[in-house]
Amino acid sequence: MSKEGGLSVWHLTMLALGTVVGGSFFLGSAIAIRTAGPSIIISYLLVGALVYIILTALSEMTVAEQLPGSFRTYSKRMFGSLVGFVVGWVYWTGLILAMSSEATAASLLIRSWLPTISLPLTSILIIIAVTLLNLLGAKILTTLESGLALIKLSAIVAFILIGLALIFGLTPNRTAIGIGALATEPLLPGGLSGLAGSMLIVMFTYAGFEMIGLAASEAEDAHSTIPRAIKYTVLGLVGLYSFAILVLLPLIPTAVLTEDVGPFVAALDRVGISWVANIMNIILIIAILSTMLAAMFGLGRMVRSLAKEGSAPSWLKDKGDVPFRGIIFSGIGMVAGMGLAYILPSEIYVFLVSSGGFSLLFTYVIIMATHYKFRKKQGCPPTGNCQLTGYPYTSLAALFFLVAIISSMPLISGQASGLIAGLILVGFYTLSYIALKTYSLIKSNENISLIKILGVKDIYKEKDRIGSKRLVRTLKPATNWEVSGELVVNKSYTQKNSINKDKI
């Protein structure tokens, strides 16, 4: 439900941007740009359109009803308890492993200035700080997150302004670069396969936007704030990303980019602005911390949602606004995930961490599949304003596009392991759910059936709920006249009855 004094459009937008804009864009985007060449701008625009469809689909379901657990709860209502259980835990596990590696990455950046510090200790301290800040509550956290997000966005804007000054010759003692490297570069150096291969990495630079849905139950006037926050998030991301890439392309040939140096640092270093590297390291640390803070916000609420419905241990249930137990449990999970880096062989650890990307893509597939069924059953939100135009074609197109991106993972260096690890996670949690459900049925002396094990009965409950809602809507009076005529006892009828009784 919406809350008075809850999260505003600004808070929700900054929370989403804080989650999305991170190391994947500042550092990891170099691989995608090198793979696609100048056509990378097409990738960012296409994936931006996909993100808009996914977020709008999530917005429609959220406006209809704000539920803890967001997409996990909606998927449970549409497809049953098994799907809700699996998507919730796959999302949580993938994000925990990804964020634990982010803590290590931040520690490595800090050690470049303080070479004597302990990496494990620094990583643990970062996770503890992120956990404690989340315990302060949504309003304080989103205010802090807004500040960090502004720093990251300001860094992108600063690069755009510096780049434009270099391109148009607005800097002293420098000649205009003009179209620069673009003059000799083909649009598709890697062909269509290079463009397609870049889509996965570009999708990762947008990942994390689903946080708006997880924060919806704490939003102020969710019916209006959620759609507006989604619009601003998509416009902000697509606009900033596209402009930054357009400015970058004339400054440096895409073929010289490497995964070891961020594309923006490499571009400015190439034109003689090497001092920016140290500043970008600070921005990267801020970006990582901001992403971890926002991710922990969602993880704590996901655990509370799972516990509330019996899909997580009962001792993880929380009654207050802040899911203290879910946040602390997720913090412990991050520390454990980080510890795996020092216990397991590096190949196995990288294999596990690579599941983070798959878990997000898997979540987006579930969101679109859920929305397709949701809209088919319930139509538009209660106000009747459909936000996603072109249904069902837009939903199906987005679903197809997401499946294609996941299917392309084995074709991209280092991503095949992410697909395998992700599928193992899905299989593990599917079997875990079946085992737990079977044990629960045996313990309660109930008959074991496939419908009960898979949680399909939840779908029938949802059908009944939707049916009763529609029935109530048909009886709802539209005017005061209808109230007096339909819902108030008919006086003439009672008078006739009393006359008849007197005659008898």
List the secondary-structure elements in sequence, H or E. HHHHHHHHHHHHHHHHHHHHH
- Compute the separation of the termini in Å: 55 Å
> In terms of per-residue confidence, which ranges show pLDDT below 50 for 5 or more consecutive residues?
466-504
Under the CATH scheme, which class of the largest domain?
Answer: Mainly Alpha
Structural class: mainly alpha
Task: Return the CATH topology of the largest domain.
Answer: Amino acid/polyamine transporter I
Main location: membrane
Transmembrane segments: 12-33, 39-58, 79-101, 113-136, 148-170, 190-209, 229-252, 272-301, 322-342, 348-369, 390-412, 418-436
Domain Amino acid permease/ SLC12A: 11-416
InterPro entries: AA-permease/SLC12A_dom
What does this structure look like?
- The protein folds into two domains: 444 residues, Amino acid/polyamine transporter I; 39 residues, no CATH class.
- It is 73% helix and 0% strand.
- Keywords: Amino-acid transport, Membrane, Transmembrane, Transmembrane helix, Transport.
Topology, pairings included?
Layout: H1 9-20, H2 23-36, H3 40-64, H4 71-79, H5 81-111, H6 119-134, H7 138-167, H8 191-206, H9 211-215, H10 222-251, H11 263-270, H12 276-308, H13 324-343, H14 346-353, H15 355-378, H16 393-407, H17 416-443, H18 450-454, H19 457-475, H20 480-487, H21 491-503
Helix pairs in contact: 1-7, 1-10, 1-12, 2-8, 3-8, 3-10, 3-15, 3-16, 4-5, 4-15, 4-19, 5-6, 5-12, 5-13, 5-15, 5-17, 6-12, 6-13, 7-10, 7-12, 12-13, 14-17, 15-16, 15-17
